[in-house]
Design a protein that fits this description.
By secondary structure, the protein is an alpha/beta fold. The chain is built from 15 helices and 11 strands. Among the domains are: about 130 residues, no CATH class; about 120 residues, Rossmann fold (3-Layer(aba) Sandwich). Helix content is about 45%, strand content about 15%. The strands form 3 sheets. It has a 7-stranded mixed sheet with strand order 5-2-1-6-7-11-10, sandwiched between helices. A hairpin with a 6-residue loop joins strand 3 and strand 4. Helix 5 crosses helix 7 and helix 8 packs across helix 9. The longest helix has 22 residues. The N and C termini lie far apart (about 65 Å).
């Protein structure tokens, strides 16, 4: 007999690329397994207990890995949803909380099965019917309401149930994540959900999340709302290591990828909110953020580089009608990273080591050597022992490579 979870996994065909270990890294299937592996390998090098900082939280991979290895991990991000998720992943969950969460999930599903609750309003996602079938939407709206019914606001039980809810809503969706960016499956390839027991699927997701919640780290993880352009504003004390993967300069909108979670959990209320947040994020260009690039200008204190100027000129004059916007996008990206690296210096202990996992990019056949420009900025700011270590090819294009840009700070 084919289980509901197996049927759903056939629809979520991106899951093989993502870390689904029993710990908390795989709670939302957002962290590629190779990213977790890189972070684990870097953290494994360090003995004793040290302070590790990640200024680009993402799904809190670095902070969680640091805590699992007995270190103190601190991470920041400008996206409130990622702060919520990171705090959920790094929290301590007692056996009593796990038991109470399991009981709450059973109660929520009983309410849904009885049909005794009015579902929450459908989130204002454009063309939402493209995301979910009618049956799935009805189920998700009722389940979301039932979770609120059986748990208290801001309780750990609600957090656990909402993490599982996020897993389920993506598994039930028509979205495909087997490309660099999200896409939708062709309508003739979308299996019908009529034979899928959605309640059982959610129950399995709850058990998966509870299994990870039971694996409490021995160290600590702290997740803080903050802007990476001013990293010291949200934190205190000095750090021995920085391990992070900043946004790549490739115009991929992380807000766009996170929209389904953010709408269903109330972090977004209208499409303009997503564009505004993308504009505040480093490397974001979606919605209103793209149009604003037309009028964008350098900050008075910005990074000067002949290499960067040459790349921007090539973009502008390479028979590309969007050349000016792309050139401004690249300039803004490095202006933001320049501010970040400048602010980072005051946060590092003497001998502090940094690791930036980042890939280069191409724009209409113009190569943007991000790793070289990072290295140039670090050298200008007084960092030492700077290296660009190639880690892997990013795809079939031989020129696209992921690097570990590493350096030390001696003050």
């Amino acid at each position: 007999m084919v289980t509901a979870r197996k049927q759903l996994s056939q629809r979520a065909d991106y899951t093989h690329k993502y870390n689904v270990r029993s710990g908390r890294h795989g709670w939302l299937r957002l962290t590629p397994a190779y990213s977790v592996k890189i972070v684990e390998e870097l953290i494994n090098k360090y003995d004793g207990s040290i302070r590790i900082f990640d200024p680009f939280c993402g799904t809190a991979t670095t902070a969680l890995s640091a805590a699992y290895h007995g270190h103190e991990g601190v991470t920041t991000d400008i996206n409130p949803f990622l702060i919520w998720l990171g705090q959920a992943k790094t929290a301590y969950y007692s056996p009593e909380i796990i038991a109470a969460s399991r009981f709450a999930s059973i109660r929520a599903l009983e309410i849904v099965k009885k049909g005794g609750i009015q579902g929450v309003p459908r989130p204002p996602i454009h063309n939402i019917e493209r995301w979910w079938s009618e049956n799935a939407l009805i189920f998700l709206c009722q389940l979301r309401a039932a979770i609120d019914e059986v748990t208290q606001v801001d309780s750990q039980q609600r957090t656990i149930l909402l993490v599982a809810f996020c897993r389920t809503l993506i598994a039930l969706s028509n979205a495909a994540f087997n490309h660099q960016s999200m896409s939708f499956k062709d309508s003739d390839r979308i299996p019908l959900l009529l034979d899928v027991d959605m309640c059982s699927s959610y129950a399995e997701d709850v058990e998966f999340v509870l299994l990870g919640a039971a694996e409490n780290p021995t160290g600590t993880g702290t997740v803080i709302l903050g802007d990476a352009r001013n990293p010291s504003a949200a934190t205190n004390g000095l750090f021995h290591r920085v391990i992070t993967s900043p946004p790549y300069a490739n115009r991929m909108s992380y807000i766009r990828e996170l929209r389904p979670y953010m709408y269903w959990l109330g972090f977004l209320e209208k499409s303009r909110d997503a564009g505004e947040l993308d504009w505040l994020s480093i490397g974001g260009t979606w919605g209103i953020a793209t149009s604003r690039l037309n009028e964008w200008q350098h900050e008075s204190d910005h990074f000067e580089s002949d290499l960067l100027s040459a790349v921007r000129d090539n973009m502008t004059h390479n028979d590309n009608k969007n050349g000016r916007i792309l050139a401004n996008y690249v300039a803004k990206y490095f202006d933001d990273m320049w501010m970040h690296f400048k602010g980072l210096r005051s946060m590092l202990a003497p001998g502090g080591e940094i690791h930036y996992i980042v890939g280069n990019s191409t724009f209409y056949k113009v190569l943007l050597p991000v790793e070289q420009l990072y290295a140039a900025m670090l050298k200008t700011l007084g960092f030492q022992s700077i290296k660009c270590i190639a880690l892997r090819k990013r795809n079939s294009k031989k020129e696209l490579i992921e690097f570990d840009v590493t350096a030390t700070w001696h003050g």
